[in-house]
Amino acid sequence: MTTQFSVQDIELELTRYPKNQESNLQAWDAADEHLIKHLKETEQVPVATAIINDNFGALTACLRSMDAQWPLAVETDAKTSQLGTLQNLEHNTLCADNIQWLNSRENIPADIELVLMKLPKNLSYFAHQLNRLSQILPKGSLVQIGAKAKSINKSLLEIFAKNLGPASASLTWKKTRIITCIADGKARELPTGNQWSIPELNLEITNLSNVFAAGKLDIGARIMLDNMPKGHFKSIIDLGCGNGVLGLNAKQLFPEAYIHFVDDSEMAVESAKQNWALNKLETPGLIGEQATFGWDDCLTHLNEGIRPDLILCNPPFHQGDAITDHIAWQMFLQSWRSLKNGGILHVVGNRHLAYHVKLQRIFKNCTTVASNGKFVILQAQKISKKAEPHEDEGIEPSDVAGDSEPSEPHTQSSLYGGIKEA
Hints:
Blueprint: E1 4-7, E2 10-13, H1 30-41, E3 49-52, H2 58-66, E4 72-75, H3 79-91, E5 100-102, E6 114-118, H4 123-134, E7 142-148, H5 154-163, E8 167-169, E9 176-182, E10 194-198, E11 203-207, H6 219-225, E12 235-239, H7 245-253, E13 258-263, H8 266-279, E14 291-295, E15 310-313, E16 318-319, E17 322-323, H9 326-338, E18 344-350, H10 355-363, E19 367-371, E20 375-381
Parallel strand pairs: 3-4, 3-6, 4-5, 6-7, 12-13, 12-15, 13-14, 15-18
Antiparallel strand pairs: 1-2, 7-9, 8-9, 10-11, 16-17, 18-20, 19-20
């Protein structure tokens, strides 16, 4: 894996997040290089700049290496992107002070003079981002977007014209182009969430623009809902929750349970939160918060007071445009560490991904619950310290829990804060 970033006179060492993931994927692409090359060639001076969709901080690190005080607002929907940017700034001893960190729903500063973006895969989300910019950018403001040349077509340029202003593309360099959009000064309304129903579950669902399978129930979730686990569960994590449909159905099936929704996408976490409120699933008489919502890199910062007896997981096998299984591997490892002894990990995945191999290595057991031509439902149970994964799988003995696990507190834990008193 290449970690040495070199453009013009900028030399950095950049890694994906987390740094120790086993991957041959690098932390930037040619579109990042093209944007920085363009800034250097045009002798761009430091001005208040918004950086949007900076996957692991290549753009942010470059601007801070050009000027340690370059005023920056960095917007991302992915927690791993934010953590990766901080990781690369620290590794290259670059100043992280006075950077304004934003998720994709927070207000962009009104004093922004320059916007640098990477083109996201989800074009509905991209249109939403352009809408947001239209609300604060004065007429004539420049927005520069790095993208693969093959992604740029008439339809994409029409998205610019509709949501922010006219746009044109540069010549190709390393199979990428820079799109320059000139804001027309007309503020657009932000799109509302897409609301739809699942009548057989008596659920109403709303999705914000960057949530997977917006407007429909994806087929992986469908087979999971048809094969939910049996048992008596009191603490449940919906890991990679998306709009939260699995956790919502879990609350219907196990009304005495506390549900914890976790996702890398802030819009997904907010969608799950809205859906919890929309469906009014609170059980009278339970003490404390019955649902918590965490924007996090899997279970990296989970409150130690939470020891679930069930984790529901529909792992992604993409990170941006990259196909990778490291996220599923991390989810499974962290699930093993977090579960109570006897707790269950209930997983859905495409058959060809062979998740049963990973689960068998980590849990030392794996059962096939259901399958069809494309998907499989797998279940693994944490059975005391004897199921400890081997050190050659990247886990030190100190990383895993012993035979005696802390029990779920009588007063419910917030997902990432302290224990909340009843």
